[in-house]
Design goal:
Distance between the termini: 55 Å
Order of helices and strands: HHHHHHEEEHEE
Radius of gyration: 32 Å
Strand content: 5-15%
Largest sheet: 5 strands, mixed
Helix content: 40-55%
Structural class: alpha+beta
Number of helices: 7
């Protein structure tokens, strides 16, 4: 069973349930429509169709019908023949440009690419990796410290300074925070001395430069 048909069956079941409650006086039309996720006008239309034809009146009449935007089968055969005989090796984009310009093709590039790929005429592109993958947090406190510095005019009337923050990676609990003229090795060690003295050693440390990720 296709997903659209399954969802339609669920919609019919939900409608019958709310319709029966409405008929019994437990719900008014406003509440029944809200529970079904539609407006009152749609609910009234469904009620009329249900009274006239039962559950079949609630079915989406578009299911099973051929879309008016679908490429005719004979046109698909022509496109496949053109690619195999005249345009073999062309990219989907280049081939689509020729179809539109030279063969009166009126459908989109995406359809052309999917059609070529589904018929084995064009290889599918390899999945591209994410540009940046979000690093998962550590599951328990104490497993990793995260340290970073941010330059800003934190104190009115003074020049911009670096705010050095050291926090627990799992909980975002801040263990140390202070401002200094410039972030560096000294500020990093100062923060770590505070944290180690009060909370002990973590399993690891992740810091933005000047220190890279370091394992203790």
């Amino acid at each position: 069973m296709r997903r659209t048909e399954a969802l339609q069956g669920v919609r019919v079941i939900k409608f019958r349930s709310e319709f029966e409650r409405h008929e019994a006086g437990e719900l008014n039309q406003i509440d029944a429509a809200a529970l079904l996720g539609v407006n009152e006008r749609t609910l009234r239309r469904w009620c009329v169709r249900f009274d006239d034809a039962g559950e079949s009146g609630l079915l989406d009449r578009r299911l099973g019908q051929v879309s008016g935007q679908r490429v005719p089968s004979e046109r698909e055969a022509q496109i496949e023949t053109l690619y195999r005989t005249r345009y073999s090796g062309f990219t989907a984009k280049h081939f689509h440009e020729h179809l539109v310009r030279d063969h009166g093709f009126a459908w989109g590039y995406t359809w052309t690419k999917v059609f070529l790929q589904s018929n084995g005429l064009l290889p599918r592109a390899t999945t591209r990796g994410a540009h940046r993958c979000k690093r998962p947090r550590r599951p328990l406190p104490g497993m990793m410290l995260h340290q970073d510095g941010s330059r800003h005019g934190w104190i009115g009337g003074l020049d911009a300074m670096d705010l050095i923050v050291t926090m627990d990676d799992a909980t975002n609990t801040i263990y140390s925070a202070f401002v200094c003229p410039e972030e560096g090795t000294v500020s990093t060690f100062q923060a770590l001395l505070q944290v180690f003295g009060e909370h002990g050693l973590p399993l690891s440390l992740y810091s933005i430069p000047p220190l890279a990720a370091a394992w203790l």
